[in-house]
Write a structure and sequence with these properties.
By secondary structure, the protein is of the alpha+beta class. It has helices spanning about 5-15, 35-40, 95-105, 150-160, 175-180, 190-195, 205-210, 245-255, 265-270, 275-280, 285-295, and strands at about 25, 45, 55, 65, 65-70, 70-75, 80-85, 90-95, 115-120, 125-130, 135-140, 165-170, 185-190, 195, 200-205, 225, 230-235, 240, 260, 295, 300-305. The structure holds zinc ion. Zinc ion binds near residues 58, 59, 77, 79 and 80.
Length: about 300
């Protein structure tokens, strides 16, 4: 059983990350339809303009441009000739920013009279101000930070419009692709900080608390296994040593207190271009042996520390 909510969030993220992020229901793989329906039914998607070309409905192989001829929608396929096209196959959907901003305000308990504000139209928003005790955090949402023009506009907004010491960045771009390692402000991926439940976004309070803790203060409880900032592990009396990045993986998994973490979030956090934590350990038999004893993972790319 593949839980649908995380896949729905992944689909939402991919729609937001692509500059022309659109999805056509008829072109979706059947295994992704449930995630699409979850998003559509909770209002996260809006109808986009019609698609300029679609796959030929007859052969499924050639691109055809729909046109209306004598009142009938059709397209000229190089292989099949004129083929009829249904309206359903033309309907494209895109992510609705307003929905996302509204749900984020709800997740953070931001007063309903506060409106979100576009700082860079279409790519950078102030979601709202989140008050916790005496501190106020300015929640920002960004997307497509890996695109040069978007990134430049984001940096300009950062100078002109954002109080950096208060801001927290939520992004649909991975930390690695976003090129923000020089920024001191907390940066968290959208799929990590909220979970989709019954059509609403719920704040992951542990991840949020972790975000707000300055990096040098992210101290770790005394661990029976790890020492030297996770550079050393002692497993059943055996002593293992790790690189700084490898130690970063353990540190990250440890910080979420036995919870599961998505591979991309871990790799982003340690600024690694590798695909998943295993890749960092595989080349050294001994380190791989330690990793396999300490960490568990599943087929969906989630990793967690084994209970020891
Ligand atoms: Zn065809």
């Amino acid at each position: 059983m593949r839980p649908v909510a995380p896949r729905a969030v992944s689909l939402l993220v991919s729609l937001l990350e692509e500059s022309k992020g659109r999805v056509v229901e008829d072109l979706l793989d059947t295994s992704d339809l449930d995630a699409f329906h979850v998003l559509r039914d909770c209002g996260a998607l809006v109808v986009a303009e019609d698609v300029p070309v679609i796959l030929c409905p007859a052969c499924g192989d050639q691109d055809v441009a729909p046109q209306r001829i004598r009142g009938v929608l059709q397209g000229l396929c190089p292989e099949c000739g004129y083929v009829e096209i249904t309206n359903a196959s033309l309907r494209a959907w895109k992510a609705d920013h307003d929905w996302l901003l509204g749900r984020l305000r709800m997740a953070f308990g931001i007063a309903t009279r506060q409106d979100s504000e576009a700082l860079v139209p279409g790519t950078v928003w102030k979601v709202g101000d989140h008050k916790a005790g005496k501190r106020t955090h300015r929640i920002l949402l960004t997307r497509r930070l890996s695109e040069e023009a978007v990134h430049k506009a984001f940096r300009e907004a950062l100078v002109d419009k954002i109080e950096r010491d208060k801001a927290v960045l939520i992004s649909t771009t991975s930390r690695f692709a976003a090129m923000v390692s020089d920024l001191a402000m907390p940066f968290v991926h959208l799929s990590e900080i909220v979970h989709l439940r019954s059509g609403k976004l719920e704040l992951d309070t542990e991840r949020w608390a972790w975000c707000l803790t300055p990096a040098p203060q992210r101290q770790h409880d005394v661990s029976a296994v790890f020492a030297e900032n996770f550079r050393i592990a002692v497993i059943d009396g055996e002593h293992y040593e790790f690189s700084a990045r490898q130690a970063g993986v353990f540190s990250y998994l440890f910080s979420v207190k036995g919870g599961k973490s998505y591979k991309q979030s871990i790799m982003d956090d340690i600024d690694s271009p590798q695909k998943n934590p295993g890749e960092l350990f595989r080349r050294n038999a001994r380190q791989w042996e330690a990793f396999s004893q300490l960490v568990e993972w599943d087929d969906y790319g989630f990793y967690w520390l084994k209970q020891r």
